[in-house]
Model the fold of this input.
Amino acid sequence: MLSFLPNRRLMFRAAMSILLVLGFLPQAYAHSASKSILVLGDSLSAEYGLSRGQGWVSLLEKKLADSSMNTTVINASISGETTSGGRVRLPALVNRIKPDIVIIELGGNDALRGLSVAASEENFRTMITAAKKANAEVLLIGMKIPPNYGKEYTQRFFALYATLAKEQKIRLVPFLLEGIADRDDLFQADKIHPIASAHPLILNNVWPQLTPLLKK
Done:
């Protein structure tokens, strides 16, 4: 097959993921793969400003397909999503999809909307509980916010991820943009969203913490 032809297996899985999120497939499909991963995130996971297939979640799906892992990835990320929005959406998603793993990549937009650290923490705790109740493993992805929000707030915000991971006994990616955040050349013009070439690096930050969950 010519190298520039699309990966048919990857295209099929992507189509099935979309149908699952939209509710057009029966719940039984979610169990047809050995593992299913639900990603609940914001613009950093929703390919904001990128061409389709360039984001780290799409790269994860391709990596799993290329390695012959029988895994379905469902990306339910929405640009602008907050922990409040995730808290509302997650129960219905896990009830319909029945994922084996839930990746929660949220929090960055909370500060932009003036949400307190305590409120964010409670929203995360509720989401983690909902995922566990659905018998899913949870991977929490940490985020840092710019120092202009104040030293105390930024420190408390970053620390809440490790606190929750320890309290809830779940795996943690300490900082999604590790090795990226301090490089202006890896960001779009808005200085907030990474460019396409940064997303393989993002996946490299996620992969070591996700792998043990895939082996369970």
